[in-house]
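Input record (one chain):
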Amino acid sequence: MHEKLQAFRWALARIVFIIYIVFSVTTLIGGFLTAPLMTWYFFDDWRFWRHWRAGLGLLPHGLRLTAMMLGQGCTFMFSVPLASPPRSRPDPSIAIFRVDWQHGHSCGDCSNCCKPGGNVCPLLDNEQQGCLGYNSFYWRYFNCGRYPSLEKEIHYYDCSKWTLRTSGQAGAAAPAFNSGLGVSVEAVQRNKCL
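The corresponding structure, as predicted from the sequence alone:
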């Protein structure tokens, strides 16, 4: 019974967030009028004035991603089940480091997963080499904190760090050539989403 109640809470938290985001986008000013809540969701910080620059980039970025996901068949980006637990890192029973990964737990200088379809996430801080929204509600409840959880994600983002336990030979494969744009030639050929 406790597990079902907890799953209900996780689902409700996601549904409330989705309703809030739809409200903010459709009204165009909802996010500004409720700026402390918006910055708590994305930055884990109620002090909205500290996040104006990145926060202003969320709306156009979100609209581009939504159009890409719906228009180009990238629906795997909507793959987080509503009742799944929030995560700050991938599930170790699903994702493991590739055998040829040299950077330990770090991603090194790679940020491919923060550049879907060539659109750089406004939460990516290149100066600090990290995410401004790390471990926020959005990070934990949606794709960022659980990445990777699907083989399609690894291929789409051209990730050379992770492999899934069920993917067999993928862990032994050599890293794909990276074009310098965060997207390899092989990834472009495999995915229409780019």
